[in-house]
Specification:
alpha/beta, single chain, 6-stranded mixed beta sheet, Nucleotidyltransferase, domain 5, 19 helices, 9% strand
Amino acid sequence: MPQNFIESSRDQSFLLPPSLRDWLPEDHLAWFVIQTVDELDLAAFFSAYRADGLGRAAYDPAVMVALVLYSFSIGERSARAIEAHCRQDVAFRVICGNLTPDHATIARFLRRHEQALCALFGSVLGLCERAGLVGSRVVAIDGTKVSGNANRDRTVDYDQIAREIIADAIKVDEAEDELYGDQRGDELPEELRTHEGRREWLRRELGRDHEANVETGGEGGEFDADRIVDRIQGRQGWTREARRHLEADRWANPAPVARARSERLRDAAGRLEDELAAETRGNRAYEQWRAGGQMRDGRRFSRPPNPWQPPEIPAGTVNLTDPDTKLMKGMRNYIQGYNAQAVVNDQQIVLAAEITNDPGDFSHLRPMVQSMISELNSAGVTDRPQLVVADAGYWNEEHINEVIADHHLQVLIPPDSGKRSTPRRGWSGGLYDWMRHVLDTDVGREHYRQRRETVEPLFGHTKHNRKFTRFHRRGRLRVRTEWRLLMTTHNLTKLHRYQLAAG
């Protein structure tokens, strides 16, 4: 008796189902994404197109939004890979209605609708609220380091940038023989043979006025002398505040990463000039305050501050591939990337998702709480959390007091990391001892233990299951869009599973 197998005939002709609805089961994620997009407010997308219908026809924004959300939900972020799926994957063909947008169209859609795509996070959060997934008494905040689309070896200092720009300028000169005569032809002009000369040439080339830059560098607000002095940081507090102003201005006015290398070189040099201008501005403000200020006990300073001389060339480095990335310590080694932040409730719904290039978490408690409140307000959520839990990296006494006073939230953060057996010098009394006492109670220990079970699985799922270990896009605005889309689709898939379980 011959063996019995199901016959497979690849040459057999057959008719495909006449309706797209027969191609996928009704509980498939693709249908859920399509139904979700139908409920979202897409006015921001449609407003970018002509209302009179003239011109070449464009893809329906509702179709493109559904395509982007589904692609990110299954871990596909490459425009070329998405185009390939549109040609051969049944779920993608259902979403697109058998249309096949090319990768350039998909990439242009992502670039054109950065802000609208970011706003989808709040819209999906509102759907989660309607399903009863958002309300939570306790939320956890944490961050994870993610590599950027940047080559760590392309981090350079100001002098290297100047040399490369000068080398490019000399390389394009076609009259080398007439210009250099009997010399080798690769000597630098006299004014470019020193640090000071190269900097002066580069400043003229960039069209920058350093003195004007010092006065305006790091715009973003005036110095709050009382707040800086209260933190007892001396000169460093003023320069840190100036850098904070500069970083806030860069977030308020993000610049896209240039495609041409020559433009990226000039942008990198300009960034280092701005950082030196901010540092100079902070030092000048400190010296002016010392000249007319008072010590904490009300006495005048007995002597003027030590004079500060700005360096001849800007210090620090910048990455030429993605200037917004910073070198930061990851799980196993140092990476060139970003610090991705998230606020998560006990049902692992992300309530806020933001990006920073600050390697530490020290200054992100207040911004993340404010972002969470803003997202909940925009989603129409009236039920507010009562307790915010974070690890020791978020310990910031000023932020904790402001969160408690301004947002009426309790905060649970250990002042000491798990590696320390004794408190730091000066970290005792007041809020430090009170927080240690709360963490020693059964309730405090239980809430802090729950933090690890709430927020850390999000990052493990995102990196391991969804294979997200590196941003595809460059520049802080585009990276923020990518991260918020990832967290939007995380919430979307959670909502899909919840509805399947409820059904």
